[in-house]
Amino acid sequence: MNPRKLAFEVLQKIYAGGQYSNIAVDKALGTAELNENDRGLFTALVMGVVEREITLDHVINALADQPSKIEFDARLILRLGLYQLMFFDRIPEYAAINETVDLCPRRTKGFVNAILRSYLRKKDGIPYPDKDKEPIKHLSVKHSFPELLCERFVQQFGYERASDIFERYNMTPPMTIRINTQKISRNDYALLLDGAGLKYEFAKNAPNGIKIFGSSYSALPGSDEGLFFVQDEASQICVEAMSTKAGDFVIDSCSCPGSKSFGAAINMQNTGKILSCDLHESKLSLVDRGAQRLGIDIISTRRADARTFDVSLYESADVLLCDVPCSGFGVVAKKPEIRYKDISQTDRLPQIQTDILDNVCKYVKVGGVLIYSTCTVFDCENEDIVRQFLERHPEYVAEDFCVGDIRSTDGMLRLSPDIHGTDGFFVSKMRKINRED
Question: What 3-state DSSP class applies to 48?
Answer without folding.
Answer: helix
